[in-house]
């Protein structure tokens, strides 16, 4: 429910114990029992959102674990996953994660498994370009999401890239 409240309010700051209690029907004291501080609530929310992101990466890679994929297959999974209509909550939480190391940690664990590692995965100019693709798609996705637009069909890197 907290994840959906971030989308409804359009910001992470809109998620409070009061708003969550009202949305869930739980008492504020009940929420505080489970999450002693708003910080604890946000750490759990980031972990939840990061798990959703990793589930999407696994889905687009045919259920394979990242260690069972080649660098090119991992890049393809990242680009395809980023080209989907990304939930607003995911974008907002990714941005907000930069504000505290505890929030960032949940995303870092996924990144370590899925993102290409420049010190290990770059052997050619093509590999170097492969490192740039997810960031290009992410930037395009942020622009289209903030503008209320969607990816036009066939404009993403995955539609034109020879995998």
Task: Name a few traits of the molecule.
163 residues, mainly alpha, 10 helices, disordered C terminus
Could you characterize what this model shows?
With 163 residues, this protein is mainly α. The protein has one domain (38-160): Tetracycline Repressor, domain 2. It has helices at residues 2-9, 17-24, 28-34, 38-60, 71-83, 88-97, 101-114, 118-121, 125-146, 157-160. Helix 1 packs across helix 6 (88-97). The longest helix has 23 residues, at 38-60. The radius of gyration is 18 Å and the shape is elongated.
Summarize the structure.
This protein is an all-alpha fold and 163 residues long. It has helices at residues 2-9, 17-24, 28-34, 38-60, 71-83, 88-97, 101-114, 118-121, 125-146, 157-160. Residues 155-161 have low confidence and may be disordered.
Count the DSSP helices. Answer: 10
The arrangement of helices and strands along the chain is HHHHHHHHHH
Specify the CATH architecture: Orthogonal Bundle
Determine the strand fraction and express it as a percent band.
Answer: under 5%
List the helices and strands and how they pair.
Layout: H1 2-9, H2 17-24, H3 28-34, H4 38-60, H5 71-83, H6 88-97, H7 101-114, H8 118-121, H9 125-146, H10 157-160
Helix pairs in contact: 1-6, 4-5, 4-6, 4-7, 5-9
């Amino acid at each position: 429910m907290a994840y959906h409240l971030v989308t409804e309010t359009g910001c992470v700051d809109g998620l409070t114990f009061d708003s969550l209690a009202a949305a869930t029907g739980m008492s504020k004291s009940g929420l505080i029992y489970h999450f002693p501080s708003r910080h604890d609530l946000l750490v759990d929310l980031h972990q939840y959102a990061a798990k959703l992101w990793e589930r999407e990466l696994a889905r687009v890679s045919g259920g394979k674990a990242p260690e069972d994929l080649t660098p090119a297959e991992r890049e393809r999974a990242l680009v395809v996953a980023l080209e989907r209509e990304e939930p607003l909550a995911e974008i907002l939480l990714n941005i907000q994660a930069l504000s505290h190391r505890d929030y960032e940690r949940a995303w870092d664990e996924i990144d370590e498994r899925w993102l290409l590692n420049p010190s290990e995965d770059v052997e050619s100019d093509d590999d170097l370009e492969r490192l740039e693709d997810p960031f290009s798609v992410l930037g395009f996705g942020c622009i289209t999401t903030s503008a209320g637009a969607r990816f036009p069909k066939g404009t993403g890197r995955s539609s034109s890239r020879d995998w």
